[in-house]
Structure formats: C-alpha cells, structure tokens
Amino acid sequence: MPIDAVALRFLLIWSVFLSGSALTLFVIGRVSKRRLVSRLMTWIPIFVLLFGAIFAGRWGFFVLIVALFFLCHWELARLAAQSGLLRHVFALVLALPWLALMQFHHVPAGVFLSLLLFSGLLVYLALFLKQRHQWRIVPFAMMLGVGFSFWILLGRTGGFRLVLFVFSVTAFNDMMAFFFGMMWGGRRPFPRLSPNKTSAGYLGGCLSAVMAAHVFRFAVPELGPAGVTLAGILLAVAGSLGDLLASKIKRIHAVKDFGSMMGVMGGVFDRCDSLLPSAWVFAILFLYFL
After folding, report:
1. Nearest by Cα to 257 from 211, 213, 196, 202
2. Which of 18, 145, 176, 238 keeps 20 to 30 A from 88, CA to CA?
C-alpha cells in the first residue's frame, strides 16, 4: 500500500479517536478533568508536524527529527548549565553523527547492537554514579542522538509506515495509561521516582497499546497476530521505561518538567521520552527477529 494511503488511514483513525474522546469526556461530565483534555490536545501539534514531515518526504522527516533532537537537548542543557560550554560541545560531537549515520548509511547489525549497549551503559553510569555529575550532559545527549536516529532508521526501512505504527502504539499507551491512572488509580509501584504512576495506569496503557497495535496492523502486514500482540506489549513496556528514565533525570535535577513549550504538559522531552526507547525496541524486533 502506498505511504500516502497508509498515512491517510492513520490520520482518519486518529481524528476519530481524538474527536470521540473529547466528546465522551464532555458527555460523561469529565471535561472538568482538564489534565485529561490537555493530554489529548498536546498530541495534535505533534500529529500535524509528523504527518507534514512524512508527506514532505525523506528530507522533511530528517529535518523534523533533527529539530526535535535540538529542542530536547536544549531542555536537558538548561538543567545542566553548570557543565560548561566545552562539555556541551563534546556532547553534541558524540550525539549528532548518529543522526547522519542513519540518514546516509546502512548500519550493520553488530554496530547497531553495540551502539545500544554502549549508550545504555553511559546513561546508567550518569544516573547512578554521583561523581562527576557535570559530565552527565554527555551521555544524555548521546541517548538523544541514538534514540532519535532509530526513528530515521524506521523511516528508511519501512517507508514511514513503521514510523506511524510505532508512534501510534506508543502514543496510545501514553494517553491511555494517563487516563486509567487518573480514573481508577491503584497501587503506586514507583512512589519516589514517579508518584503519579499507578498500577491501573500501567495495565490500562499496556492493554490499550496491544489493541492499538491490532487496529494499526495494516501498516505491518509482515507481522501475524502473535507478532502484532508482542509488538504492542514491548512498545508499551519500552514507552513506560522511557518515561521512568525521564522521571529519574528530573528527580536528579529537582524539576517537575523539562520545560514549558508544550504548555501544561511540560517540555518537548516530556512528550518524547517514551518515543525514544520504543523506536530501537521495535527496530530490533522487526529487523532482526520478525
């Protein structure tokens, strides 16, 4: 199926979902839950940018990814202002080549997996070792560069249909986890790291991600029912882990949000945190196992 037809189907489904959700919240009297409405509405400009970039082609999508990288890096750099100019430059030197590499070259499987392990180790050391905190901006920047580069890889591999699939399933997990957590609450598995996250939210988000994966299955005809279900579960888990990683970074710097560019929902990185691990998890699943 041509990417234009795939994108239009995604756009139609998302339009029906968002308008139906807003109407339902109004009818059942939950419109007073302003954070729920805000959570839904903040995805609208993201959809507009994503679909606009996809219809603009390979270079339009690359420009969008690079712009998101710089916005997220800027928000992280503000938290690490004490790191100094040299460390910020060094961080960009390590992070930016991965975006160009995925755009212009085929990455062998060995490099692909080694890159993930190395960047993961750096982030772990930055988060859990208290010494040399002024260098944390370096692994954080590399985390961004590697994470966003895999979105470029998905775009090159599947002609953007994989991008739309991973983005949609991850976004459904994020929104529905927020909805179920606010409506039903439940036990809080991470009271210190992320006190607002509840067991009902995680379970509802995971089930919603699996349902979304089957709704958008037309974008991944290579996957059977079992593969689509597995993809939904893994994307939900990866998105949740990305959100927890972002919460850890915010706790280290004693801030509630990374910024205010997205209004009441925080900064750009607050919306991208779950998307970064989702891309490489699906890339591994799709390219090397399925």
Report:
1. 196
2. 238
